[in-house]
Amino acid sequence: MSTDISYTPEEVAKILRISKFTVYELIKRGELAAYHIGRKVRVEGADIESYKQKSKGVSPLPSLLDPPALSERLNHTTTLDESLVICGQDIVLDILTRYLEKQFPQVHFLRRYIGSIDGLMALYRGLANVVTAHLWDSDTNEYNTPYVRRLMPGHQTCVINLVYRMEGFYVAKGNPKGIITWGDLTKPEVRFVNRERGSGARVLLDEQLRLSGIIRNDILGYGDEEMTHLAIASKVARGEADVGLGIEKVAMQFINLDFIPLHKERYDLVIRLEDLERPHFQALISILKSPSFRNEVMGIGGYDISRMGEILAKT
């Protein structure tokens, strides 16, 4: 990356491996310097480097670009005065992090906004402490556990339910293209917008296409990727795509979108089994079971919390 040229928020997002909405939030909070050319936002390469340097200290969005440094810092033996990395993109994780920060003000709780497979790989490599997953396995019709076993070979883990969410299609109000099934994605006039590789939504789509015998090249826009459910919904709402895949909660934020429910998914937390009895993780489970946290999540809407905090598997 050159430090003498400027970058768009989308380019910054790719450089830092975060969502473009997180980039805008960093700019809004003054953590990342930016300037405007008309209505467009630009970030200098030098300011990106400056932000990355500051992130090597205390930052809500640590970089995974320097695995040895971060691995050495965490080293699977997090104590009460160190950092704890939480990976995942759902707003419920931001609320959970806030509750943890209140209980452990001396701990740096660091958030990484990455997908399910990347999160599990970070846990395997020692670059994360808590990760989320919503990965459907079509062979077993089971969520997450088969993937945890494959991606964490030789490592014992604990799978804890966070919420259940409804996954489905975002379409324009009134569903003018009549998009109801996976097969409708192949209609020649339908423009699709996809999630990035490694995300739970992308895995669900690819598994369903395989089961249905649908060739991905027959889907217009299959290669058009966005990093978040919000970005997908926004693109459909703006008319830049006809359909995208995401969770119902996000669709509720757009008055000009309809949601076509397809699949109820299990959204879990995954930690190392050796961490389960440590104070941070016992506090995490207690928070998940607390009336205040559960009521706050229920108040948001769009989530099933019936098994929140329940240990579903130890692998």
TrEMBL record:
Annotated GO MF terms: DNA binding
Q: Which Gene3D superfamilies match?
A: Periplasmic binding protein-like II
Domain Helix-turn-helix intervals? 7-54
The superkingdom of the source organism is Bacteria
| Start and end residues of each PBP domain | 98-289
By its UniProt entry, which NCBIfam families does this protein fall under? excise
Recorded protein name is Putative molybdopterin biosynthesis protein
Q: What species does this protein belong to?
A: Desulfosporosinus lacus DSM 15449
